[in-house]
Each structure stands twice: as C-alpha cells, then as structure tokens.
Amino acid sequence: MFYSCLLFLSMLVVWRFRSYYARKNLGIQYQLTWKSVYYLGLGLMLIYSLSKLSVLFLSFFPLFLLRRHGRVMSRMKTSRADVNAESYEHHLSEYLDSRSKRLVFFQINARVLFSLLVVTEFSLALAGFDPGRTIYDNGFSPVDELVDFKGYEADDRGIMHLDRDAKNFANDYIKENDLGNELLFMTSLNLKRKHYTPYRVGRDFLEVIQGKVRTEFSVFIDKLKSNSGTSPDETAILTYLKSPINSDGFRSIEFENISSDKRKVFLLGDSFTWGAGVENLSSSFADNLTSQGFLVYNSGIVGTDLPQYKEVASKYLAKVKPDVVILNLFVGNDIAEHRIDLKPFHKQFFNTNAGTLMAAPHGEYVKNADEAYEKIIDQAMIPKNMSFVNFISSQTRISTLLWRLCAKMGVIGHVASKESSDYWDFVNKSKLGYSVNAEILKEIEQICEANQCELIVSIIPERDNLAIDKYELDKMVVNFPYVRISNLTKEDYSPDYHLNESGCRKYAAFLQEQIQE
After folding, report:
1. Which of 90-99, 202-211, 340-349 has the highest mean pLDDT?
2. Contact, 396 vs 377, CB < 8 A?
3. Alpha carbon of 411 to those of 14, 100, 344, 404, 491: distances in Å?
4. pLDDT higher than 50, residue 75
5. Which of 13, 215, 269, 363 is 20 to 30 A (C-alpha) from 423?
6. For residue 457, which phi and psi values (nearest 5 degrees)?
7. In the beta sheet, which residues pair with residue 327?
8. Structure pTM?
C-alpha cells in the first residue's frame, strides 16, 4: 500500500513538471496553487479509505495519467512542427479552452464533494460516532489515559466487596455531619481517583439522617427512632444507618445471626441489588424491603454475577441463618456461557474512567486494568498499528464506516492482533453454553438446602426487552425454577438502565408477595 501511494505521488509530480515546462515553452503562465495540493490530499484520503481496493487503483492510475498526457504533449509537438502559426494557435486555443472547462468542472464538483464530506462527518459526530471505533457499548468509552479507580477489593475466596478505605470514608463522612456541595464532592472523588459508586454511601445516608430526603426507608427509620424498644434487629438497623458498610464490605447490616421475630431475607445480586439507578441509596428495593418489616442482608455488589453469588452463599449463609435467600438474576449480564471460577484476591472487574472492565469476561483473568482495556480496545477499535491503511481509516468517521463496510464484506482480513486472536480462540473453545448457569444455580440451591433456607430466583428483565418470552428464559437457566415480575415499564428504569425509584418500589412489592407466599 505504501509503495503504491509513493508511486502515485511520484508519477503525479513528473506529470506536473512535464506540463509546467510544456506550458512554459508555449509562453503560458502556470501556477500550482494550495487548492491543488488540498484537493490532491482529499483525493488520497478517500482512496486510502478504500483499503485493499486502492492498491490496484493506485498501481494503474499513474500509468494511465502518464500515457494520457504523453499523448497530449505528443500531439502538441506535432502540431508545432507541422502546421502554420494560425493553425497551431487554433489548436492551442481549443486545448486550453477544453482544459479550462475541465478544471472548472473539477473545482465545482470538488467543492460540492468537500462540503458533503464535512456535513457528513459533522452529522456522524452529532450521532455519537467516534473515529476508529467499530463496536459501541454503553458501558465503555475509549480514553487517552486509563485511570483505575479505588473502592473495591477481593478476599481470599475472590469475593468482591468494598475496600476498607471506602468503609472508613463513609463512616467519617457521616460523623462529620457536613453534606457540603455535591459537585465539589464528586470532583474531589475524581481527583483522588476514587470511584463514585462505593464512596457515595456515606453522603446518601447522611442525607437520610439529616432529613434531606423522604423515602420509605427514612419514614421507617423515623418510626424506629420513636420506638422505645431496643431489640437486636432494631439495633442492627440503626447501626446500619450510621455505619452503612458492614465489616465484610457490603452495604448491609452485619452478616451475623441476629435474633429477630422478623423474617430474615438474604439478597444475592449485582448493581440492581446494590441500588444503582436511584437518587438516594435508601430508595433501593433492598431498603424498601427493610421498611416493609423484613430483616434484610444485602450482598449486592456492582458488576458481579453467578460465580460471586455462589461463593457469597457458601461463605455467609451458615453464619447468617436466613429464612429466605433471593437471587436477583438480571438477564442483561448475569447469564453466561463460560465457567468463571473466582480467583483469590483477584478482582472480577476494574472501575475505570473508560467504564467497568471485566477482569475475566470469558474465564481467563487478566493481570490488571490496562490489559483488560487493551483486550476491549482490540475489538472495539480499528487496530491502526497493524497497517497504514488502518491508521488512515481510523482518523475520520467516514473512513471508519468505509473500513467497517470493507471488513464486513471480507475485503479486509486479519482485523485484530495475534494476541486478541489467540484470546478469542480460547473464548470459542471454552464456551459451554447456558448449562453453566443451571450448574451454578443448582450449587446455590444445595447450599440453601444445607442451611435450611428457601431459595427464590427472581428474574429482572432488561429495559428494552421487558416482554422476553418464557422460552428464552427457560433456555437461559435450563428450566431452573424462577419467578419474574410482570408490571415493570420503561418508565421504571433510569437512564443507566437500572431500576429507578418507582421500579424499586414495584420490585420490592413483588418480592414481598413472593416471600409471604
């Protein structure tokens, strides 16, 4: 490709100088303007965008130009030697007139083409397209410098939980009793490279304590405070209000067997169970269940899935002795086709400024956030370091779309690096299908049976697929028993696709019905 471009430029320069000297001999003034250079560059950019197709074009086009203009110059020399001055001037006038018309035609069309390209590029930018990007994911954005935020860690079983710094930060924030400015709060976290999700807990619960928000949980707390009783479960809930992250790193009351007349409910889940999507965490369905009279243990952690749920159940159910275990299964990302066993002291994901990057999306753990980012970039972006064509194609949105079209048609091959190809070969070979989900669910069921507690698998549908049919769900869990909520609407979801306040109220009411049946 590079040599073809070099050939094209060389031939074009030779042709221009031949034309220049020919016109000089005829007494015609010639000037190579910046517009000519600009249009030449624009033409090259479009040619580069055609990838492999341009190799053939660039190989023959210079020869075509040289041959064509050689004929013209030959005719002009013959005319000068063989015809009289009047005939020569007549032929020259016709030639220049023809050249002038073609030049005007080229300039007009080039300007129109340039304007169209600018408008198209700008429209694609407004539509959210990025130069060089081939795959779009709401949870991922390319960045110039990757930042791995603090807030989470893994224990000796590989269970993800909030780290000690996040716990101490929440407790200290509540003790200081000063909300401050929310924008400054978020800016401060960002500068300290602390992720907002685990570090927002203290601020949210301080709003409840100060009466800045009015939720079902805050109303319940007010009644609890006015009650003179000091039962163990009431003490646990009031302690949770002042220290919302327990000693195990979960947003919950302590994971211990608390004496209570209330039904004890242990929640397994991810960001939905954590409370993502609500303005204040006390509006989550976990805290709504608490306000409905249950003693709730919440093990929800953002970004986790079935392997974590199994390990959490194995570690804590014998300690807590709950009456009911509710596994909140989000069909959007809790369903897998690979067996991913947790690795001691290895996080399952990395919270970064590029989004949440999974550490082992298909069963093979990466070493750090940078390696996880590279694996995603290798699939989400044009691998521009692999060829000059890829590099040029990744510079504009239009050339990126042309590259994607060529890749889809099979004109472009080997679009990923060898490391990525090896990784995806591993992915395809290790795929086990949906049977993985049923295996883990059965293991969790056995743990529940051993601890004499009921297991309820509750399906949380995606916002854009609320009407998912029973056949699809049965296939995902291989006919494992489950329940599903049916009255959710798109208005019950927040912009980040999690349940908002109304969605959490509906879902908490649904779970209450399932517990009481």
Report:
1. 202-211
2. no
3. 32, 38, 45, 10, 44
4. no
5. 269
6. -95, 115
7. 268, 457
8. 0.74
3-state secondary structure 313-359: HHHHHHHHCCCEEEEEEECCCCCCCCCCCCCCCCCCEEEECCEEEEC
The pLDDT of residue 516 is above 80: yes
For the record, the structure tokens of 295 come out as 């003693």
| Identity of residue 497 | Y
pLDDT at 374 over 90: no
Residue 382 pLDDT: 79
Between CA 83 and CA 80 the distance in angstroms is 6
Based on C-alpha coordinates, what's the Rg of the chain?
A: 33
Is the per-residue pLDDT at 332 higher than 60? yes
Angular region, 260: left φ>0, alpha ψ -120 to 50, beta rest: beta
Angle at 117 between CA 64 and CA 56, to 5 degrees: 30
Closest to 340 measured CA to CA, from 331, 349, 332: 349
407-465 pLDDT, tens digit each? 777 776 555 555 555 555 665 666 667 888 999 999 999 999 999 999 999 999 999 99
Measure Cα distances from 262 to 240, 289, 322, 324, 368 in Å: 17, 12, 10, 11, 43
Strands 160-162 and 264-268: unpaired
Residues contacting 380, CB < 8 A, separation 6+: 133, 134, 135, 136, 137, 140, 142
For β-strands 295-298 and 264-268, DSSP reports them as parallel
Query: What are residue 267's DSSP bridge partners?
Result: 298, 326
Which has more confidence, 34 or 392? 392
Using alpha carbons only, give the angle 337, 341, 342 rounded to the nearest 5 degrees. Answer: 130
